[in-house]
Amino acid sequence: MCGIVGYVGPKEVVPVILEGLRRLEYRGYDSAGIAVGCKGQGKLSVRRAPGKLKNMEEVLRERPISGCYGIGHTRWATHGRPTEENAHPHRDCTGSIVVVHNGIVENYLELKRELIAQGHTFVTETDTEVIAHLIEQVTADAQNTDKTLSLEAAVRKAVKRLTGAFALGVLSAREPDTIIAARQGPPVVIGRGEGESFIASDVPGILHHTRNIVFLNDGDMARLTPEGVTFTDFDGQPITRKVQHITWDPIQAEKGGYKHFMLKEIWEQPRAIRDTTLGRISLDSGQVFLAEMGLASEDLATASSINIAACGTSWHAALAGKYMIERLARIPVDVDYASEYRYRDPIADPTALGLLITQSGETADTLAAQREMMALGSKTVAICNVVGAMVTRDAHGTIYTHAGPEIGVASTKAFTSQITALFLFALHLAQVRGKLTSAESLHLCEELSRIPAKMIDMLKAVSAQTERLARDFSNARDFLYLGRGIHFPMALEGALKLKEISYIHAEGYPAGEMKHGPNALIDETLPVVVLATQDPSDAGSRLRYEKTLSNIQEVTARSGRVIAIAVEDQEEIGNLVEHVISIPRAPELLLPLLEIVPLQLLAYHIAVRRGCDVDQPRNLAKSVTVE
């Protein structure tokens, strides 16, 4: 996840870009850079620095540059260390083309070898540098056949060679007052002003200059000049994109046209999962790379146990993480409510590893649990969404999630990002401890990489269905959510989402405990949401599924109204229950990422129908910073 801001127009470009980058610095903090040009000079000036944006600002004070068009970048490192050399923008061999990039080029090694054979010299460890050289080579190839390619045409030919996710901004000294943008995956927004044009990764980066915004779709390109913006697809066909006039204040503008932040954040989950994964897995070897975690492999290999502390939704993620870690890495895991941890005289020592999970990194109870773990001699790792938060400053290592700012009080994309980070941690731990074969690791990495696309398709399929279900169940006084194994934490989370924003009493329960109390609650007025998913290739999953079918029959025999979450093509479910929401197939440990989404949507639509304040539910705050 990186931040991009670009400008072309009459203003001095450097202050415009720096201001935009400050507003997007949450998207990247490993390094920063800027490239600017001025018509008639025939060159581009570049300044870069490792670390946060303030470091680049210091470089600019010492070596100032100026111009009327340019592009800037704040980086989250994927390929290559966070050094000045690896900071964006990246140049071609001639220095006349510069590129900034958000995303990952999956086939960069193949392209790099090809370009080296053609005489190109690379100076960085990044995948992005390949793009600049590829554009240069495309241009040279055309000149060798006595053809002249515009920058736009050269970028178009280059992006069709790229595999992966990318948002690009490209400048050329040969075409002043021009920025070329392209999108395939990560977001790109275009802004229009009077005699000026803007590009950014997100609206807040340019909102203080213009409220006329265009959101690029995947496969879109844009050519920006002071006179205006033209849009084409990757085949060069002209396209029309609607200009949206943003009338809200900057915080409201971040809704991107959605009615509520929560709904926007539900739909952002594929991107958040992808961004949390990018640069951390190899689809060649199946290896997981968590070098930025900052904890030595020996500490992971020799740990005797793991103690996890978290609150609320993060605690549900922690419970799911327990299943992942114990199954893959074969190490015992305890999960505590952070608010209870230090009051139970916990057992922790230098051989145990502490894991703290928090979206904000400032939750008081979680910080207190961390201090207790450290006082007992344990090293701690934080899973956090906020760079530089307190929990990360005290931790021995950190795994950042890349959900981006989450405004809605009811957590959605932060939760699925935490699940993703926990899965990566479990895989990494298993690899360090020698508990997985290379083939097993590769299979799980490949399956994880497929989750965002599956989630996008599922969101489109189930949104209308959950809205219809909300009409039928919004007047219910109580809900019961049931799940087994790793799906029990998802039942807890589904119930929490409903009670948080709709104020309906909801309870999550292990399905196997039905006979120990919950059966007494079931009658014809009680909606029962059952997580009845399965991975047919997993013997344990199949057994769990069969037992869950029995639980469903217990409910229907007592006239309970069942909403089942099931994997597609589970035909027997439809014969047992009133309503079925289908999700795509996935391995057992990855099914939670998919099955939680319809539960979030169901809670959202019920709350809307009940007239509740979805984004700011009563009596709740986003981050609990006091006990």
Notes on the structure:
With 627 residues, the protein is of the alpha/beta class. The protein has two domains: 3-253, 4-Layer Sandwich (Glutamine Phosphoribosylpyrophosphate, subunit 1, domain 1); 264-609, 3-Layer(aba) Sandwich (Rossmann fold). Helices cover 37% and strands 22% of the residues. The chain is built from 19 helices and 24 strands. The strands form four sheets. It has an eight-stranded antiparallel sheet with strand order 3-2-4-1-10-9-11-14, covered by helices on one side. It has a six-stranded antiparallel sheet with strand order 5-6-7-8-12-13. A five-stranded parallel sheet has the order 16-15-17-18-19, sandwiched between helices. Helix 8 packs parallel to helix 14 (413-432). The longest helix has 36 residues, at 438-473. It starts with a strand and ends in an 18-residue tail after the last helix. The model has no long low-confidence stretch (mean pLDDT 89). Residues 296-435, 469-617 form the SIS domain. This is Glutamine--fructose-6-phosphate aminotransferase [isomerizing]. Catalyzes the first step in hexosamine metabolism, converting fructose-6P into glucosamine-6P using glutamine as a nitrogen source.
Task: Summarize this structure briefly.
With 627 residues, this protein is an alpha/beta fold. The protein has 2 domains: 3-253, Aminohydrolase, N-terminal nucleophile (Ntn) domain (Glutamine Phosphoribosylpyrophosphate, subunit 1, domain 1); 264-609, 3-Layer(aba) Sandwich (Rossmann fold).
For this structure, the CATH topology of the largest domain is Rossmann fold
The radius of gyration is 25 Å
Total domain count: 2
User: What's the β-strand tally?
Assistant: 24
Q: What is the terminal-to-terminal distance?
A: 33 Å
The secondary-structure class comes to alpha/beta
Strand order of the largest sheet: 3-2-4-1-10-9-11-14
Number of helices: 19
Largest sheet report: 8 strands, antiparallel
Indicate the proportion of strand residues.
Answer: 15-25%
| Average predicted confidence as pLDDT | 89
The CATH architecture of the largest domain comes to 3-Layer(aba) Sandwich
Net shape: globular
Low-confidence stretches: none
